[in-house]
Design a protein that fits this description.
This protein is α/β, with parallel strands linked by helices and about 325 residues long. The protein contains eleven helices and twelve strands. It has one domain: TIM Barrel (Alpha-Beta Barrel). Helix 6 links the parallel strand 6 and strand 7. The N and C termini lie far apart (about 40 Å). The structure holds zinc ion (ZN).
Length: about 325
């Protein structure tokens, strides 16, 4: 663990002089599948307040992103709530944008009742939010928006900097919905041992439900996820927000969160070798994703990071799976 961290820090310190190892960087070019042009399904995305559906569509076309799976739009009183913004975007983009439900509902419920609603089987607000999620999920295509069982050190909203039981009544119901609708529950869950234990229990209790670990657990090392994937077959990962520029501001404090980056003026694109080995060993369990960005320039850079730092580093069959095939299977999208 320490060595891995040390290598990453050293790479950054010496980044201006020493090229990063990028063993398989150009291996895919010249093959039938090219990392520059392979279609991407963005498996975890938030429509930010600065975005319009038209802007998004133009960006998707430019970057060869065939489909976007919403993790829940960001809403505001002026722009409208998350469910409405997602619905409107789907109305304009059709099957290229899969709307989500539940982001605003669970957050609003927690603002009223506090985090206790995640453990209280009699919570009125949780029941009302879950009823709305159930109703909207019945209208396909829809997915369950990002949930936040553990965002103790990784959320701007102070209310969300807490840990709630991952095997409590709310997540039990979401897993029943997951099994019934065959859509995964997207979880932002920092890798606290108690959360991990609770998630294990939840996955065992609901073998027909599925969880997507947003940002692959956020604070994880490859070895953590390897052990977890070995143990549970009904869990997958998206690789959103594990690269630069998104993680760059937190790199010094949390170096383990960064697992790949794109090429810079004097350094090469890089994928952490332990993560690379893990993705190649479990090629069906990982998906590329963008998550939230603060402007279109950053969005463009995140896509470059995904193509250069992640896809270009993988073997061609794994690259195609991570770029779009896994998401098509997991979200039951039509084949292109
Ligand atoms: Zn997210």
């Amino acid at each position: 663990m320490i060595r891995q961290c040390g290598v990453a820090v050293l790479s950054v310190i010496l980044g201006l002089m020493v090229p990063h190892p990028a063993k398989a960087q150009s291996k895919a070019s010249g093959e039938a599948i090219d990392w520059r042009t392979v279609p991407i399904v963005d498996a975890h995305f938030h429509l930010m307040l600065f975005m319009t559906p038209e802007d998004l569509l133009a960006r998707m076309d430019r970057h060869k992103i065939s489909t976007v799976i919403s993790g829940g739009a960001i809403g505001s009183p002026q722009a409208g709530g998350p469910n409405l913004r997602d619905t409107n975007t789907h109305a304009k983009l059709g099957p290229r944008f899969i709307p989500a439900v539940g982001n605003g509902d669970l957050v609003a419920a927690e603002r009223i009742e506090g985090p206790g609603m995640y453990s209280d089987p009699g919570s009125r607000e949780a029941a009302a939010a879950l009823a709305r999620i159930r109703e909207f999920l019945g209208r396909q295509p829809r997915v369950i928006a990002e949930t936040f069982p553990n965002a103790e050190r990784s959320q701007k909203d102070p209310m969300m900097r807490r840990r709630v039981p991952v095997d409590g009544p709310v997540f039990q119901e979401l897993m029943r919905l997951s099994a019934a609708t065959q859509r995964p529950v997207l979880m932002h869950m920092e890798w606290h041992p108690e959360s991990v234990q609770q998630l294990s229990r939840l996955l065992e209790q609901h073998p027909d439900g599925m969880v997507t670990l947003a940002h692959c657990g956020k604070t994880t090392r490859a070895a953590d996820i390897r052990a977890f994937l070995q143990r549970h077959r009904n869990v997958v990962c998206d690789l959103a927000f594990r690269s630069w520029p998104q993680e760059e501001p937190d790199y010094k404090r949390f170096p383990e969160r960064t697992i790949f980056w794109s090429a810079g003026p004097t350094w090469k694109a890089w994928l952490d070798p332990q993560w690379k080995a893990l993705i190649e060993d479990y090629p069906d369990r990982f998906m590329a994703a963008i998550d939230d960005t603060h402007d279109w320039a950053q969005y463009d850079e995140v896509v470059r990071s995904i193509r250069e730092g992640l896809l270009a580093q993988l073997s061609p069959p794994t690259m195609a799976k991570v770029a779009h095939e896994n998401a098509r299977r997991i979200f039951r999208l039509p084949q292109p």
